[in-house]
Amino acid sequence: MTSIPQYKRVLLKVSGEALMGKREYGLDTDTVNAIAADVGDVVAMGVEVSLVIGGGNIFRGVAGAASGMDRAQADYMGMLATVMNALAMQSALEKRDVPTRVQSAIPMASVCEPYIRRRAERHMEKGRVVIFAAGTGNPFFTTDTAAALRAAEMKCDALLKGTQVDGVYSADPRKVKNAERFETLTYLDVLSRDLNVMDASAISLSRENKLPIIVFNIHAPGAFAAVMRGEGLFTRIV
Ligand code: UDP
């Protein structure tokens, strides 16, 4: 296997739902371990990797608000959920001897580091996987936006979005048989066609910062490493 990565530094966004496996809620350890294995392989290629993990497998602010909670309060709960996922991923990576640091946008001194941009960059230079937890630290945002924000701050070469399918399709390929898969899209295509990739603020932020977004299947073993070599199936948004 040739392993010449095409990227020096990347940020991978994994949704909370991707960690559920076949469960309806919470974390599936085998799924977390499988993703950690793929991350470890990419680190072993010499790529500097950071992660943003969502919280939708545990709690979403929108759902809390729909059931009558104050939206901002519910969003803070959602952000705390992402910290749990980040700790689970840290544990899975460290079991594989991949050095990691969790940095939270909401300071939580006894659990992880606070988010400090320059320190995070230093960790990455040293080959540590930095897991950014608690989203942006602000309610009314999503972890997609947090991923675009941190990727821009870390001067990443690409923002990877790990999804359930191998790229962006014209319709959900699990429901629509002849849905078209795109090789390349522009940021404006995604926004104007309302393609379900990441939320609009994440796309806009990536566009402003000329940050390519690469969408691939997080559950295909080895896909993350393949994407790093420019191989396999993915959609590139530029
Ligand atoms: N959240 C927030 N601000 C942020 C990031 C996340 O308030 O910057 C909250 C929001 O309530 C969101 C929840 O955290 O619903 C979980 O994040 P998200 O829905 O993005 O997770 P994913 O869909 O990726 O699992």
Automatic annotation (TrEMBL):
<keyword id="KW-0547">Nucleotide-binding</keyword>
<dbReference type="InterPro" id="IPR036393">
    <property type="entry name" value="AceGlu_kinase-like_sf"/>
</dbReference>
<comment type="similarity">
    <text>Belongs to the UMP kinase family.</text>
</comment>
<feature type="binding site">
    <location>
        <position position="55"/>
    </location>
    <ligand>
        <name>UMP</name>
    </ligand>
</feature>
<feature type="binding site">
    <location>
        <position position="75"/>
    </location>
    <ligand>
        <name>UMP</name>
    </ligand>
</feature>
<feature type="binding site">
    <location>
        <position position="164"/>
    </location>
    <ligand>
        <name>ATP</name>
    </ligand>
</feature>
<dbReference type="InterPro" id="IPR001048">
    <property type="entry name" value="Asp/Glu/Uridylate_kinase"/>
</dbReference>
<feature type="binding site">
    <location>
        <begin position="136"/>
        <end position="143"/>
    </location>
    <ligand>
        <name>UMP</name>
    </ligand>
</feature>
<comment type="pathway">
    <text>Pyrimidine metabolism; CTP biosynthesis via de novo pathway; UDP from UMP (UMPK route): step 1/1.</text>
</comment>
<comment type="function">
    <text>Catalyzes the reversible phosphorylation of UMP to UDP.</text>
</comment>
<dbReference type="InterPro" id="IPR011817">
    <property type="entry name" value="Uridylate_kinase"/>
</dbReference>
<keyword id="KW-0665">Pyrimidine biosynthesis</keyword>
<feature type="binding site">
    <location>
        <begin position="13"/>
        <end position="16"/>
    </location>
    <ligand>
        <name>ATP</name>
    </ligand>
</feature>
<feature type="binding site">
    <location>
        <position position="60"/>
    </location>
    <ligand>
        <name>ATP</name>
    </ligand>
</feature>
<dbReference type="Pfam" id="PF00696">
    <property type="entry name" value="AA_kinase"/>
</dbReference>
<feature type="binding site">
    <location>
        <position position="172"/>
    </location>
    <ligand>
        <name>ATP</name>
    </ligand>
</feature>
<feature type="binding site">
    <location>
        <position position="56"/>
    </location>
    <ligand>
        <name>ATP</name>
    </ligand>
</feature>
<keyword id="KW-0963">Cytoplasm</keyword>
<keyword id="KW-0067">ATP-binding</keyword>
<comment type="subunit">
    <text>Homohexamer.</text>
</comment>
<dbReference type="GO" id="GO:0016301">
    <property type="term" value="F:kinase activity"/>
</dbReference>
<feature type="binding site">
    <location>
        <position position="163"/>
    </location>
    <ligand>
        <name>ATP</name>
    </ligand>
</feature>
<feature type="domain" description="Aspartate/glutamate/uridylate kinase">
    <location>
        <begin position="8"/>
        <end position="217"/>
    </location>
</feature>
<keyword id="KW-0418">Kinase</keyword>
<keyword id="KW-0808">Transferase</keyword>
<protein>
    <recommendedName>
        <fullName>Uridylate kinase</fullName>
        <ecNumber>2.7.4.22</ecNumber>
    </recommendedName>
</protein>
<dbReference type="InterPro" id="IPR015963">
    <property type="entry name" value="Uridylate_kinase_bac"/>
</dbReference>
<feature type="binding site">
    <location>
        <position position="169"/>
    </location>
    <ligand>
        <name>ATP</name>
    </ligand>
</feature>
